[in-house]
Amino acid sequence: MLQNIRDKSQGWLAWVIVIFISIPFALWGIQSYLGGGGSVTVAEVNGVELDKNTYENAVQQQVYRFQSMMQGKFDITSLLPNLRQETLEQMINEAVLTQTVEAQGFRIGNALLQAQIQTNPQFQDNGRFSTDMYHAKVRSQQMSTPEYESRMRQQMMLNQLREGILSATALTETEQQTLQTLKNQQRLVSYLRIPESVATATAVSDEEIKAYYDANSADYATPEKVSIDYVLLSREKLAETIKEVKDDDLQVRYESQIDTYTTKPEWQARHILINIEDGDEAAALKKAESLIERLNKEEDFAALAEEFSADTGSAKKGGDLGWFEPGQMVKSFEDTVKTLKSGEISSPVKSQFGYHIIKLLDAKPETTKPFAEVKEELLKAHKKEEADSLFYGVSEDMANLAFEQPDSLASIAELQGIAQHSTELFAKNEQGEGILSTESIRKAAFSGQVLQEGRNSEVLVLENGDQLVLRIKDHEISQIQALEQVKAQITKQLKQEKIKQATETVGKEVLTALSSGAQQALLAQHQLNWSAPQWVNADDLALPSAVLKAAFKMGTPAAPNALYQGIALSDTEYAVIALLELKSEADEETTPKLKQDLEQQQRGLGSTEYQMLLSGLRQNADIKIYQQNLK
């Protein structure tokens, strides 16, 4: 099966988009934890260690990802245990899959990796690959280019397996025909809209308002509110406390990362390729030399390339190969290019493809940004690493002090990199700005530990990884608002209910009249008109969505009789639906939309196959989890 998958996966790689390191299976580079390097092991997969440092970093990245996805509503306090377990499971899954694909011979060659990088829009400037942009983007991820390319190669290899399984799964002809029939079904529908205007008695008396208020006064209570004091541990602020950084240390860092700040040389050239036909090397060489003679007589290189070059791709562009870097051309070609001056034409150059005639158009030398130019960047990265190193120690101290001194934040505020803040009053369900946009922060402020017992909260994690401890500053209890404060609100609500009752009553009267044949007088009385019958399909936009949804849930009408049903069209309007007829015709050719639906269903089946494969691989793997090291 895996051989079949490997073969099929090659076609899918043309459209596989390799995302930086931001989806679950790409949160961390496999090379960063397979084979160890960390002092503590959290798990082993077939004897290969997964280290704790990478595990903790992966957990933190998952926290950021989920909080961003939930837009601040992610309750990290309650879900963190599950999140930590899920992260470990993902690391184990990736380790199992990596060992499997490597054993089965899955490989990502340099050419494929290079093509993937060069076609990534993140690394392009005006539609063309930019080496400077590539290095800058990679540096922004705090990685060297070799590290990034290793991670990317790993992810592409896993994508070969995943996409190969998806492509190997197919729907049967019967399944395709059934789906096609359902998608092509149409229904002939008309509907009668009952508008608000049918309601005549909508006045609301003071007695009705008072009675409703008395029965529902609890609904008009002001929310309980609190304000909080909190101490914040921020990596950014912690980095600002790191004052002394020696230039010698930055110089060492610079030299260890010199490749990051070095731009490779580039060349732009044209070429004419002469094939060696039937093994006749002498004839090919003679033809190349004759073309060089013509070029020396100032014939146009582009014209000769277009006429004689066996490289049909570049021949159409006058032999222009565009800009290229070391390693992108065969060795003999590149070695010759390095010796040419701009405008110079080479002697015949032999490669496995034949004989090349090369004209250098332009060249860019290798450049390295000087230390002074990148010193601030190096300093920032150095401080970030120092802050990361300090962060967990300060975080532990903060947690201990929050527990040991539950009645005050004063001692925590004295820790390195800690800042103290306060908020205005806010309600539990009131999404504010800053830290109050995070539901877990608001929930902690109203917890029994903090609000009722008056103690410090536990350490809470923000979306960006910053941590805080909070306690109550002020507390405002809930109070019932006076009738006069909510009278307008109640009046509007009661009026809306009367309108809704009136439209529903008329709608039900119409349904009754339809069964007795007395509908015309009722329609005339309320000035109602049926819509023109329309043939619609299940995703049509011609009808209100509520009408369309209800129409496709109705049964099959028995001609010549229609089926009728009443529905609420909105908070105040009602509608009566008439289903007159239905038809289902399968087209001979599947429509593009249906093809897309079939592909989605196929990929759903492929996902199931993928999970089954993963489950089987895990069952056969020797997996050890060291729970004592996960705490």
UniProtKB/TrEMBL annotation:
GO terms for cellular component: plasma membrane. It holds the Pfam family SurA_N_3. One of its GO terms (molecular function) is peptidyl-prolyl cis-trans isomerase activity. It is found in: Cell inner membrane. PROSITE patterns: PPIC_PPIASE_1, PPIC_PPIASE_2. Keywords: Cell inner membrane, Cell membrane, Chaperone, Isomerase, Membrane, Rotamase, Transmembrane, Transmembrane helix. InterPro entries: PPIase_dom_sf, PPIase_PpiC, PPIase_PpiC_CS, PpiD_chaperone, Trigger_fact/SurA_dom_sf. Its main location: membrane. Residues 264-362 form the PpiC domain. The chain crosses the membrane at residues 12-30. It is a single-pass type II membrane protein. It comes from the Bacteria. Belongs to the PpiD chaperone family. This is Periplasmic chaperone PpiD.
